[in-house]
Design brief:
One of its GO terms (biological process) is proteolysis. It holds the Pfam family CBS. The protein is α+β, with helices and mostly antiparallel strands. It has helices at residues 22-40, 46-77, 103-131, 136-156, 164-177, 180-206, 212-242, 247-250, 264-275, 310-313, 329-339, 358-371, and strands at residues 5-11, 14-19, 82-88, 91-96, 257-259, 279-284, 287-293, 315-316, 343-348, 351-357. A hairpin with a 2-residue loop joins strand 1 (5-11) and strand 2.
Length: 373
């Protein structure tokens, strides 16, 4: 969802990025705060008011990053990899590598963000009291930051999945029932109820004079929560199912193969374009020596395709990620995601017996979900 983002930096090994939609809320928030500060302090110049609004906005998004870092650092402490934190139009999201293994882990990861926001609200409040006699500008910024962090903390505790409160609710149901699946089902249901409630509230607010933007914003958040709740449910049950299906059950034994000495051009014209196979195992003397895929072609200039063998651009067998028939397809998907690949050869007793590719896995999982089996 948030792939189109650019990198700001790295904190504790976590990539911090900004999605292009973030600029919408960034400029809207500056404009809104400019009006708020101008009305509260008409004696300020436009230049000073703008700089104050800009400072408050930047510190707010720093607060959002710290909120997400709260989730992320607790996840890392429990052995869960966190790929990135991305700011976008509706706030921020931490891209955590996998689901929590226990209800307690899920609870601690979920509660960490709101606790950070409560702590920031307390810190900004104390700073406001300290700086109040010295700076009217600092007092105004810190007072707003105190309020907005309290709002973020409390709003996120609403039990609507995938918000923090929904994840906490899921963890509690999971703990009480001992059933992670039931916890997810209840959490998604609560998320949809909350989202529809926010949508109705947004509609009512939008009907009020001068409140159209606020109402539309709340409706936008509700739509996002609905979409995320449904997407989270599909992802969770797909991964839950994937953890119970072995590679040996769905292995593709009819694997496309080409000889090591075949030219790139011949492979494309005589194989790829006719069969639709974007990748092939490379064979020499009846032994698999590597794998070549469409993405490997970029290693070679087009004018050299006719006289360059696929062996020159393939990934050698010793560098390939390999699966065993006993691996779950969830493990294979994790291998694919971590290495940015779409095919994984399957090795049994030292011999390649087939492969499994991403498209095949997703098709199998979707059929399981569609049939309810």
């Amino acid at each position: 969802m948030l792939e189109s983002s650019f990198r700001l930096g790295t904190v504790f090994g976590i990539r911090i990025g900004v999605h292009y939609t973030w600029f919408i809320v960034f400029f809207l928030l500056i404009s809104s705060l400019f009006v708020v500060f101008r009305n509260a302090h008409p004696e300020w110049s436009s230049h000073d008011t703008f700089l104050t609004a800009l400072l408050a906005t930047l510190l707010f998004f720093v607060s959002i990053i710290l909120h997400e870092l709260g989730h992320s650092l607790v996840a890392i402490a429990h052995g869960i990899k966190v790929r990135a934190i991305t700011l976008f139009v509706f706030g921020g999201v931490a891209q955590i590598g996998k689901d929590a293994d226990t209800a307690a882990t899920e609870f601690f990861i979920a509660i960490a963000g709101p606790l950070v926001s409560f702590a920031l609200a307390g810190l900004f409040y104390l700073l406001k009291l300290w700086l109040m006699p010295y700076s009217e500008t600092a007092t105004a910024v810190l007072e707003w930051l105190t309020t907005i962090n309290l709002v973020v903390a409390i709003f996120n505790l609403i039990p609507g999945f995938p918000m923090d409160g929904g994840r906490i609710f899921r963890a509690l149901i999971w703990k009480m029932t001992g059933n992670a699946v039931k916890g997810m089902q209840w959490a998604v249901m609560s998320g949809k109820i909350v989202a529809y409630g926010l949508m109705m509230t947004g509609m009512l607010i939008a009907l009020q004079p001068a409140m159209l933007v606020n109402g539309l914003w709340l409706m936008g958040i509700s739509w996002f929560l609905l979409a995320m709740a449904e997407d989270s449910k599909r992802t969770y049950f797909r991964e839950h199912l994937a953890g119970h299906v072995s590679v040996g059950d769905v292995i593709q034994k009819e694997v496309p193969m080409i000889t090591a000495d075949m030219s790139i051009l011949s492979w494309i014209d005589e194989n790829m374009l006719l069969t639709g196979h974007r990748a092939c195992l490379v064979i020499k003397d009846n032994q698999t020596i590597g794998l070549v895929s469409l993405s490997d072609i970029v290693k070679c200039p087009r004018e050299q395709w006719s006289n360059t063998s696929v062996r020159k651009i393939m990934t050698p067998l010793k560098r390939l990620s390999i699966a065993q028939p006993t691996n779950s397809i969830l493990e294979v998907l994790q291998i694919m995601n971590e290495n940015g690949i779409n095919q994984v050869p399957v090795l049994d007793q030292g011999k390649i017996i087939g492969w499994i590719d991403r498209e095949h896995i997703l098709k199998i999982l979707q059929l399981h979900l569609d049939t309810g089996r």
